[in-house]
């Protein structure tokens, strides 16, 4: 249990990180550092996007798989690390 | 003779009669008198009729109906006047009781039947849809048959095929000219047919009206049926579920694996921003350097005091911190020391003033603050702009409190029209408030003559309201939230710290002394600083001594660490919130309240400050006193560094509004930029200018720009990013020496610079866009410049050491050679 906290804390303490969300396979958030409504929004939307991205990659090449998804926007960058059962979402503001 | 009745008309009981006038009189049935339209009948007794019959026998009118009367069962007979001669004669008799009853009480049945019949047509119309009936032919079928087109003959069909044996055999085609072989073809030549030369003049067309029908079709895609749901609340886990999940091993493994790649991605972003458009960032910087259009300061307004008898010069200029368009100017007579002494008698009669000018009225000053002697420097109190502290030529500090007149200066608009009205009234009728002529406001308090400065006060500053100091120079936090301490430096080689709060009396004697010395003050002077008047002593005095023997340093300007924050005009909202609002308890009127608190000392506060002297030295010293081990007295610490850079009086020592540790010093014929902490020398030192520099100021919005005024009335505008060896621009402002420069920001688009000259004229010029707006990254560029200069100085130091080393080695070699 402490490991989980430690890892998440380490990620959160990086420069520019705004929030971290851990989501299960169905899109329900497990752990988060953001407020509830934002978490739910991020979890739902990014879960769907990750599924779509995964299916896209596999459609093109069935032996391929999605390992990491980075979305760069004007204001920040959203990083999604997918897994069979979980999803780790990190939002970072890269500009100084 | 049988009586005639009206049986033929359906009324057998009616017997028409003629009644003569005589008969009418007898029976009281005279027409229009006894029998009228309303009552056309009369009941007549049988007996009377019999009497009449006996009297008049055959002459009686009732003779024809004698038999009826005799047979009449009842006693009274009904006689009806027949006005319309319905039954032929003017009266008729009803012969039966039944008839009488019927006449008198006509049955109502027929009326009801009539009414009933009238109601039926008013019923609601009930819609009956058309009922389909079998087709009834009216002969239209024949017409249709005639007009329709049908094939008259049966069509013949031909089927041509090859012999079965030739099916599938290879085919050989050859060409043949059709005209050469006989009967190879049959042609049907065209010939003119008379039938088709006829022109049709009439045509039969049939039409039928039908309802409009439209048929369209479209192809829809129907992939597959799917279920859809609607959700109102997001699905979430409860706390316990979250806890159990947290401890599950798959989550731990997942996080360990995922965090690796996530951290790589995070670090990538931290290292470099890969999405920067380099071209875009490059282009912006170049745009500003070459832009030289409209870089001159434009004259906006100028103020001169026309009422003063002697020639005056402006010694200090200060913009009002909050009110737009209000600027205060201190004037002093333009005389040398000997002349002052010579004319001292005359000078006493003239008031020494600080004038408040407003943009709306260039001729009349709005307020005039009176002081005992010429003011050489003054400042508005940052926490309350109604308090002004000024330093006199005789060494006194003067305090003004203009809270009472604050509304006058706040609402300065269209002052000209009001002043015209005022002059019409005779003087004795004018009330003091409506008099728009500037009022002389007497000072509130002056410092004690004996214990203050002995010579002219050259610079005065309010200490920031974030800290305060005590006698030892130790710094404490300031709980009162207002600026309550001042620092002054004077030509008598001392720097004094003053506190405007009432000092705790050390001995009871002082209170008695105060009572003795209480002077009658005029009624219109506020008593804010009454406790200080004439008895104000400095909190601590620091003497800048050069050593035991030689003369001391004579400070002309000082610059404290927190100064630039006080006068930073960009963040107006911050300063406004600090300024006391009228109506609330003004802390300056209740200065004793903050005294008793025990204050917390602030550690690691930089108590060092820069001083510019009359001889051109720039001194970096400390105000904290230390206890001398031998005498036990409080001694000022030795200065940290002293540099003699300038060839004349240093009149500007100023921190940059953007960098806390960059100081500009201007004096003599050159200027220098220093960085606090770098003690080896100035970062930049300009070469000697052709004309003496007499004033200087940093630009408030551009980090690399500052203004320097010269003695010939020119302003040099330096831009560190453009050129560092000479000013970027030079502009002529006036004909005489510029004594003070003070820029001010009013809005993002409007910036003014106030330039005061030796002849007493204050000019307000507008700073053009290029000089007021910083270019992008200007602050970082200027920062880089300063850092480069610091490194340059370090390098020079290193080189010095190396040179010395080399020198020593060379000398050793020389000596060796000698030997």
Would you give an account of this structure?
Chain A: It is found in: Cytoplasm, Cytoskeleton. Chain A: Belongs to the GAMAD family. Chain A: Keywords: Cytoplasm, Cytoskeleton, Dynein, Microtubule, Motor protein, Transport. Chain A: Pfam families: Robl_LC7. Chain A: One of its GO terms (cellular component) is cytoplasmic dynein complex. The complex is a heterodimer of chains A (96) and B (819). Chain A has 96 residues and is α+β, with helices and mostly antiparallel strands. Chain A has a single domain (1-92), classed as Dynein light chain 2a, cytoplasmic (Beta-Lactamase, 2-Layer Sandwich), CATH 3.30.450. Chain A is 38% helix and 30% strand. Chain A has a five-stranded antiparallel sheet, sandwiched between helices. In chain A, strand 1 and strand 2 form a beta hairpin. The longest helix of chain A is centred in the middle third of the chain and has 25 residues, at 36-60. The termini of chain A are far apart. The model of chain A has no long low-confidence stretch (mean pLDDT 90). Chain B is α+β, with helices and mostly antiparallel strands. Chain B has a domain at 7-104. Chain B is 23% helix and 24% strand. Chain B contains 18 helices and 37 strands. Chain B has a five-stranded mixed sheet, with no helix packed on it. In chain B, strands 1-4-3-2 form a four-stranded antiparallel sheet. A four-stranded antiparallel sheet of chain B has the order 5-37-36-35, with no helix packed on it. In chain B, strand 36 (751-757) and strand 37 form a beta hairpin. The longest helix of chain B is centred in the C-terminal third of the chain and has 41 residues, at 778-818. The N and C termini of chain B lie far apart (211 Å). The model of chain B is unreliable at 286-291, 414-436, 506-518 and 564-584 (pLDDT under 50). The interface between A and B is medium-sized, with 37 and 27 residues.
